[in-house]
Amino acid sequence: LHRLELLTAEEAAQVQAASPLPEQVRAVVDVLAGKGSHASQSLQSFIKTSNSQLYLHITVHEPMVQKHLESLQSSCGNGLETGALQRLTNLLLVEGLTDIQQKEHDILQVETTKGLPNVSKSIPLEKLFLPLSKVSIPPRISVTIGVAGIGKSTLVKLFVCSWAKGELNRDIMFVLPLTFRELNTYEKLSAERLICSAFPHIPEPGCIAAGAARTLLILDGLDEFKTPLDFSNAAVCTDPKKEIHVDNLITNIIRGNLLQEASVWVTSRPAAARQIPSGLVDRMTEIRGFGAAEMKDFLDQVFLDNRDLSSQVLQHIKANRSLHVLCTIPGICWISGSSIAYFLKHSSDQSQEAAVVPRTLSEIYSYYFKMTLSGDWLEQPRETLMTEQAVNTSKKLVGSLGRLAFYGLLRKKHVFYEQDMKAYGIDPSLLHSSLSTRLLLKEDMQASTAYYFSHLTIQEFLAALYYYMAAKRAIFDLFTESGVSWPKLGFLTHFRSAVQRALRAEDRQLDVFVRFLSGLLSPRVNRLLCGWLLVQDEHSGFRSQAIGVLQGCLNTEHAISSRAVNAMRCLHEIQHTDTAKAVEEAMRSGSLAGMLTPTNCSALAYLLQVSDVCLEETNLSNCLTYNVCESLLSQLLFCRNLRLDNNQFKDDVMELLGSVLSVKDCQIQRLR
What we know:
Radius of gyration: 28 Å
Number of domains: 5
CATH topology of the largest domain: Rossmann fold
Strand content: 5-15%
Distance between the termini: 57 Å
Shape: globular
Number of strands: 17
Helix content: 40-55%
Largest sheet: 7 strands, mixed
């Protein structure tokens, strides 16, 4: 019975006579049958509270339903471009989080796995909340994961808009989308007030059909929630009217102590999703990145009026394997595409030395920031470019935004509110259109206004810019915001401190920040940003010493970890590629044997991810010893086609390889 309120009184009486009936269905049918000839009119809602638990068994006022549908369509329909959404109509069906998803930064996850999912099962969006088989039941708790910028919020908008139009899941009576950005503005809430405050057009929480008909509560963006969820110590609450801390409210809803009749859908970045115990999750799905055709369609959409430019941009992205992998993320594809297009637009104006296609992440983001500060976007004519005064104002704002970005990054904070802006001396009214649409986005909510960076990597680049500029004059540890610490003098001291912090961080959330910080020391980035955000040639005084600090990270462990690989990526950003080039050349010529020192092993692990030599097959024949193989194990996981023949292995190595093949993250398809 999907829509009980459509029953006539006579039909309701027939259903009433049937036995047995679920308690919730009988409650609704009793009301319907009692209405007599007026049963076709809108039915008043009611709440049944039993054993201090909230049951929402109601049908609803038809005008109020209509108002709810219109409200959802207006709020979720904006900005949905149907051409780019096909990818989101099929989700990957996954069995929990992999080790790499729980421990690594989003960008490193994509780089390590080369943007390729390790699962073959998928589920269409319209079946996301349906049973997988005739003998199973619909999931109560569903979690959808995806790295930053992959399209989680867009997926939610797409689902809600499609549902409101009646295109899918008609068995769901009510869809209630909430974001953790909104929930951050409350200290305490009850289950009833949660619904009422988010949907003021619904007069009472009893107007939610979550018993006789299904209700779906959507909680979007767990990674943006200000308080970690603590399922071990959260106090149990079964009273829907009782106000409790918002994090406790969420844990009680997920556990089923509150709104237990409703289905719940949580979206999150992978690392944050591990807060929810796997035993409570009935279904986990993952959003996949772009395939080759989808990337082309996306860039065609970005450069709608210039298909030639779109083709050139795609060609440059494909020529850089590392960048091509990252561009499977729509957010990074947009930033990279815009930057390369900006470069191509101005390449005729540059010297031969400067006219080199941006190849590192730092170069891509430097072009992006230069373009943002000048307001020189492709769609704007030259005469509308910003005045010098406006550019100077933007530079000052970037300094303040950088401080906000850096200390936000340290606190794992990615959403900011008016009090945060005030604390960091940022006047939102000064954020002109270019800055507010390309760097810091704004979202007006009922209770307040939220600000967030257009992508996680934008926050990380701004944070690195702030740290770079502050480190030249700081006398205390910049990681201590209060400024109370042992004195630390000199840029190199602060650079070493940042690298050590990143190495020690268990959640790896400073890895890309350190990569950008290293990139700001590269000669090419200095040329790009000098006169804008950097001083010409100032990097030359400490670049070689910074390279020494990074090289010191390569010999510290027997096993080659992702930390060593990230240090190699930092060296690539700083434009020190000698070690990687030497190892790559040895791979091409088959002369790796005897040269795999710990440093060269780190370079090899890095090349396994980025080199074209390893694109079709990773050939490590006749060059590995047992110890080298053991040190590289965690990196060999992600080689799809691995060749290890003619190595003088002993039987023990088979046990090692067996342990690798049984790991959840393992992507090896063919092993010789």
